[in-house]
Amino acid sequence: MPARYRLPALFAVAMVFSALAAAQANVFRWVDKDGKVHYSDTPPPEPAKSLTQKRVGGGYAESSQLPYATQIAMKKSPVTMYSGADCGDPCKQGRDLLVKRGIPFGERDAQANAEDAEALKKLVGAIEVPVLVVGASKVKGYEEGAWHSALDGAGYPRTALPGQVPPRPPAAPVKAVPAAAPPPAPDAAAAPK
């Protein structure tokens, strides 16, 4: 680019970026004590319920590719699946359902990890997998309707958006292989002296 065009080009780029930055705004949505829904660009007064905030405008892409409803549900009701290597089809079906709905989740192996086993025992009173935890809700075993109900109740979208890249599911727990027994110690009396 010739030098005489550089300065006007840099000025034009600077103007575009400043206009985009000025166009961004925070939008707050909340419900007051009478149940009335408000939208504002300023934070709500203290006794507000159901507060949500969204950054809009500016033409910038969201930092996350997840739908907004999923992002809000994730903050309020994170999803964790307890599984194990011996779980088999129920854990696979549960994992597939979460991926199909585009729901990010954490997976904890209650059969191989003592901390995860203890946490699961505190949650449901036994070490049985799979268990789905959605916020404060717990679903023991895999039953498609119960899992959908727990996820719907937390506000997760029923299906992934077209073109939405589903979150990568955590790797399925690997069944622990018992360690081979160490070879017997050589007999001290038979050793040459």
What does this entry look like structurally?
This protein has 193 residues and is α+β, with helices and mostly antiparallel strands. The protein has five helices and seven strands. It has helices spanning 3-23, 68-76, 89-100, 114-124, 144-153; strands at residues 25-31, 37-40, 49-56, 79-83, 106-109, 131-134, 137-140. It has a four-stranded mixed beta sheet, sandwiched between helices. Strand 4, helix 3 and strand 5 form a beta-alpha-beta unit. It is extended and about 70 Å long. It starts with a helix and ends in a 40-residue tail after the last helix. Mean pLDDT is 76; it is low at 16-24 and 57-63.
Q: Structural class from helices and strands?
A: alpha+beta
- Give the rounded overall mean pLDDT: 76
Give the termini separation: 87 Å
| Strand order, sheet with most strands | 5-4-6-7
Determine the number of helices (DSSP H or I, runs of at least 4 residues).
5
Helix content class: 25-40%
| Overall form | extended
Total E-strand runs: 7
